[in-house]
Amino acid sequence: MEQNQQFFHAHHSPMGALASFTVGEFGEHGGMGLELGAPFAGNVFVGYQDGEGVVNAFPFYKGANDQSERYVQKDDTSSLTERLFDDVQRDYRWASDTFAAPGISFKVLSPFFEVPDPSLAEHKKLKQASCPAVYVELSFNNTSDKDWTGFFALQGDELRWNKLLDGDANGMVGVTCRDNIGIATQSPGARAFSHFSVQSALSKIGNNDCFMLGPTAGIMVDVKAGETVTLRLALGFYLGGNVTFNRAMQYYYTQHFTGLTDVLSYGLEHFDSYAAIAETSDQQLRDSKLNSHQQFLLAHATRSYYGSTQWLFDGTEPVWVVNEGEYLMMNTLDLTVDMLFFEMQQNPWTVKNTLEQFLKQYSFYDEIFDPAKPELNHKGGISFTHDMGVSNNWSPKGHSSYEVAGLDRLCFSHMTYEQLTNWVLCCGVYISKTNDQDFATEQRGTLIDCLQSLLNRDHPEAELRDGIMSFESARTEQGGEITTYDSLDHSLGQARGNIYLAGKSWAAYLAIAKVLQDLGESEQAEIALAAAKRCADKLSNSFDSQLGYIPAVLDGHSTSAIIPAIEALVYPYEMGLLEAVSEQGPYGEYIKVLKTHLKYILNEEYCLYSDGAWKLSSTADNSWVSKIYLNQYVARKVLNIDLANSVEADAAHQRWQTLGASKHACCDQFSSGKPIGSLYYPRCVTNILWLNE
């Protein structure tokens, strides 16, 4: 990694705890945060006081200035001098993040692995997976002839600390704040402290090593001249009791841990096994065929996914939630359909869990209308809400936190059609990859309803259908629906007549046909296949030979060119419907047209930036990298297009994260390489698909 890309924030998170130790950006706030949509507004202090009395530290705190010495805090009565490490190297892997400077190595481990299905797994595995902690290995190598004091500490204006009082039985020392976050170690010679600052603690101002008025606390250790000392730390999180509202739920880890001390003790006891898991993941990524930029992007995305996850328990059953990054919307369905591929690889039961939640709590039947005759409603059908709530507040049944009536194709409009396709696509991929026949049988009626709903939204009269969405949901109150590209122009933002969404409806028809055919519903499957053919023909016939591509919106006016015209090919491909995406298959003409479309627009005149980065729409400087990663996979793997600028594009997209979005961990929405939304975001794990190439 280039030196100017060394400093950027990254999540380091347990699985399912909606918690993050966010660290890595130069001179910015970070630390241990619970249920936040941004880095914790505190500081991280890691370093050592050398034999000359100078406090040497990594620059992971607000106010760190570039490579200089200064007196530390104006309100600090100590006179110690502070110096930032001037040669920091970073080794960023899939489950470890290591910072090295002269005399010190600071390694953060965020192990991830399969989250076992709670209905099948044994207690031991569930406890291991749900432990809400991350791990630090901190090594000091004192080659000087004078003694050092090493430290790891957190600071925050609102933090007040206690020593870990009940950890003595197993040799733990540490500090906790409100029994919600804590740091502990069993390493010999370590001692806990809290004070105004690291410097005031090092200065031994007074003789109280746990001064509770101080907002800074952590672990110190003496490092004798010529010695190497390593600290192993567990950073634990814990929230007991009900944490969600409207539907009361607890964190699943409360079924296995009695409190924060229990978490810290378990984490330290099993440090070796978690470190081994992290190393296995690191090795897997190192051994992959991905280039270094792709390896970085996958590692970065994975961390932000887990930083947004909640594994909850409603008193009877587990509930899986992925929060929408900075927005904290719960199980946003147009993210679920993109994170699907990661979850199918890691823990497929979470996909089924989310589908069942949507069906039980967040499905509805609506009416529809023709925008040309908005006063007349027709029967619509089943669909699903955009999300399930926000900031731990579950939405009322059948409603989302996001969608607002009375808007015409603007941010916060309804996404009824897209969410219908999203639920169907998740269902189809899940059933195809797991062969869960019981679930397929249970969804027979729902999928038939979904088919009819899709058909109605094309046109209520069968003879007038052309394969794509033409009718709006009455939930818009005579407004218009949008897509997941909610803050883009109509090239991708508008739902009706949009070729991106039409591609999704084609894929949804195929998914329904596959599942229903396997269930013996031949008549319904044939109806779905006929609809898929109608949709593919409509899109193929809409190719504009003068433009050289299919215009983004089939309204007779649009001339925008969009990359996501090809996006939906991923779903039948991942379902194993290879004939459907073949140029020699029943939709061969559609596949050929999409290939021609992409080849024509993948240049700087339309959908590339000058540095090789991808731009999803020719008419909007606004791109979602999660979708870029997905479309790159489709282009290479499904359409077999040789992307000459692949490495150049990957390097540019890495710069978007490490330079453009360095303060916000993994981000999704960018304008010319600068983040403009979707910060601290989980959806970028679409790039897990690259491992299949």
Describe this structure in words.
One of its GO terms (molecular function) is hydrolase activity. InterPro entries: 6-hairpin_glycosidase_sf, Glyco_hydro_52. This is Glycoside hydrolase family 52 protein. The protein has 693 residues and is of the alpha+beta class. It is built from 16 helices and 28 strands. The strands form 7 sheets. An 8-stranded antiparallel beta sheet has the order 7-8-9-10-17-14-13-12, covered by helices on one side. Strands 5-6-4-3-11-16-15 form a 7-stranded mixed beta sheet. It has a 3-stranded antiparallel beta sheet with strand order 18-19-20. A hairpin with a 2-residue loop joins strand 27 and strand 28. Helix 6 runs antiparallel to helix 7 (349-361) and helix 6 runs parallel beside helix 8 (416-434). It is elongated, with a radius of gyration of 27 Å. Residues 66-77 have low confidence and may be disordered.
Supply the number of helical segments: 16
Estimate the helix proportion, in percent: 25-40%
Structural class: alpha+beta
The assembly state of the depicted protein chains is single chain
- Look at the structure and give the mean pLDDT: 94
Q: Rg to the nearest angstrom?
A: 27 Å
Q: Kindly report how far apart the N and C termini lie.
A: 23 Å
Order of strands side by side in the largest beta sheet? 7-8-9-10-17-14-13-12
Largest sheet: 8 strands, antiparallel
Strand content: 15-25%
Gross morphology: elongated
GO molecular function: hydrolase activity
Keywords: Hydrolase
Protein name: Glycoside hydrolase family 52 protein
Pfam families: Glyco_hydro_52
